Amino acid sequence: MLAVCLSKGVAAAPLPFVKQQGGKFTLHGKPYYYIGANYWYGGYLGLLKDKKHGIERLRKELDFLQQKGVTNLRLLAGAEGEGQVNGVQRVSPPLQPQQGVFSEEAMRGLDIVLAEMGKRNMKAVLFLSNNWEWSGGFLQYLQWNRIIDDATFRKKMSWDELRDETARFYSCDACKAAYLKQVGYVLARVNSVTKRAYTNDAAIMAWELANEPRPMRPAAASAYQQWISATAAFIRSKDQNHLITLGHEGEMGTEDMNLYKAIHTDKNVDYLTIHIWPKNWGWLHEATLEADMPAVETRAIAYIQKHLEVARQLQKPLVVEEFGIPRNGHSFSLQASTSLRDHYFYNIFSLWQQQAQTQGYLAGVNFWAFSGTARPIPGQVYWKNGDDFSGDPPMEEQGLNGVFDGDSSTWKVITAFTLGKGTKQLPVDVQATSKTVNLYNNLHRLLAKGTMIGHQDDLAYGVGWKYVAGKSDVKELTGDYPALYGWELGNIEHDLPANIDGVPFDKMRAYIQQGYQRGGVITISWHADNPVNGASAWDTTAGSVAQILPGGAKHALFNTWLDKVAAFLGSLKGANGEPVPVLFRPFHELEGNWFWWGKPYCTADELKAIWRYTVQYMRDVKGLHNLLYVFNSNDFTSEAGFLERYPGDAYADVLSFDSYQYADPRTDSSFFKQQQLRFGIIDKLSKERGKIPAFAETGYEAIPYDKWFTETVWKAREGYALSYIMFWRNHGQQPNGKWHYYVPRKQDASAADFIKMYGYSNSLFEKDVAKEKLYQ
């Protein structure tokens, strides 16, 4: 799927260091992009006397992660102090049990995990302290130096109290000196297992000043910035081999984007980090988790993009090194679904993949957090001493954000991005049926062989006939069926027996099953009537989309319409009862001015929102997992124009457009030139984003130009990858006497040209795709 620099072998010669060059990470002299995990407790496992829960667990978990392609791990270097702090039981044993006193035992645990990671060519990012109480951190230094009294230190502080107290760290010289002594102690370490100095150990990628260091109060900002600069300079003076970063959350950590930029401008800070915590930041709520997720995903991507701009300005890489989301229903049970988390991860991984493929500044993402083989204890919410460590630290509910080794659907998402070629890519529905996943991957594969030819309503009727078993106007010409069959659901929202073109839904279902059984591909559009006023899809009343969004006056009605669409799509079954995969194309031609969802009648944000809502409703509410989602535009001349209403990579599998020939191509080349331009745009965007490019609807009514198929359409696509071209329906003669069809009749001058196109080795019809076994 994506070639990233990931090491797989066993240790031999000393490993190379990760470097930052020209704003990018490099390893072995090649760009280094990675998906990693937070594994903060890794340095504790080797210390446990119970080897099964200790060193054996560590090795098993590292093997598991390596097999999944997750080879960059973020670890806690060591905790400070013992006992409760801020009402929370902190992790133990500490690296620094008393100020200035360091534990050889605790350091040996870190030695062990680094040695084991080195054997597996893995990379560690080590954070050297903590803004938060669960490992002691800054509060412990303040207590040791009597800046905080014992009673305040032990009790559960209010948020304002916590901010006030922690902010004092940056003006406490004794505290900063004690912290720096711990940093120096770690940097001076020689690994007791490998006998290699930490400063010369390439299993370490980077040092982080702390986990989420915040100024906490604006008044502390100046001292905070001075501390960052001094600490980074100190680390650089001791170690020129490793990268240095801050462990920062981003704007939410400083409440000031200018301050975030300023602290990362420092010459000794090699890269930027951000963390994303929707629950902690009030983006979602337990009771409305599912409903909040569309907005959460949008805000998360916007948060990344905002910080990417700073990375571009500073020409330094950016890592999203913490992000997590609870299980469905905010459950801590391993039996609860992770579908919301899976889609959230997919969204972030998709952006990372896009950046990696274009060598952008988003270099890495580390999900929070790997819980491995640990399991929550029934009836016990929080961690206690003696429990197995898990990804959720002591102050959080065990099972809240942790990704366990048994979370198969989540690992399916992760490995789709980490393991590269030889593994199956996932569509935007990460729980898609196996045949849908197979189709998705095979459509990608088929791009190298050619372009499928499709036809709307091909099996239902043609010029001069209707509902004749086995008949097809395409087959009449070529002896072969089209590779792709288009169908339309308009009218299904009203429980009518036939669609807007008069095709009975029962017959349509049977035709879909026939095409699928022969190995063909199914695509379905939906010309929904306007739910606001009951007018047709071609109604142009402005503001309708806003009214069907959540909170809108017609939202409930629109949901009932989606229910009816879902019922039909769910009723499509193969011979063995399996769901038939469908390329679903709602809200098509969205740039046009002829549908109520068109560009003049709703904002870009409204269109994106209803698209995302529709995908999530079909997938998460109705449980349909046989759909690939086709984003469809019609009028664009640039990448930005195509993407203006694009809902995001996590909501579209196919990038497509519609366009029809009207002027005579023999005297007017504008259509040809437009399509050449558009083919180039969607080819480029699809390659960058891992999508399928398609010409979803086209035609030249009655085809009066006898070389239109080969000299216009086919020639325009030359040099570009294109999954399919679908010609519109053969309705026949209209009541006004006008002919309305797009695949030629045998007697038409253009028939020979269509047959010529059929003969091209890279024009794919049903016999061709049947051999490809697209669903296997």
Detail the topology: elements first, then pairings.
Elements: E1 19-21, E2 24-27, E3 30-31, E4 34-38, H1 42-45, H2 55-67, E5 72-76, E6 84-85, E7 88-89, H3 104-119, E8 123-127, H4 137-144, H5 150-154, H6 159-167, H7 173-187, E9 204-208, H8 221-238, E10 243-245, H9 251-254, H10 257-265, E11 272-276, H11 289-314, E12 318-323, H12 339-357, E13 362-367, E14 370-372, E15 403-404, H13 408-418, H14 434-446, E16 451-456, E17 461-462, E18 465-466, H15 473-478, E19 484-488, H16 505-517, E20 521-525, H17 544-548, H18 555-571, E21 582-585, H19 604-621, E22 627-633, H20 639-643, E23 654-661, H21 670-689, E24 692-700, H22 708-717, E25 724-727, E26 732-733, E27 739-740, H23 751-759, E28 763-764, H24 766-772
Parallel strand pairs: 4-5, 4-13, 5-8, 8-9, 9-10, 11-12, 12-13, 14-15, 16-19, 16-25, 16-28, 19-20, 20-21, 21-22, 22-23, 23-24, 24-25
Antiparallel strand pairs: 1-2, 2-3, 6-7, 17-18, 26-27
Helix pairs in contact: 2-3, 4-7, 7-8, 11-12, 12-13, 21-22, 22-23
Active site: 589 (proton donor), 697 (nucleophile)
EC number: 3.2.1.78
Domain GH26: 434-767
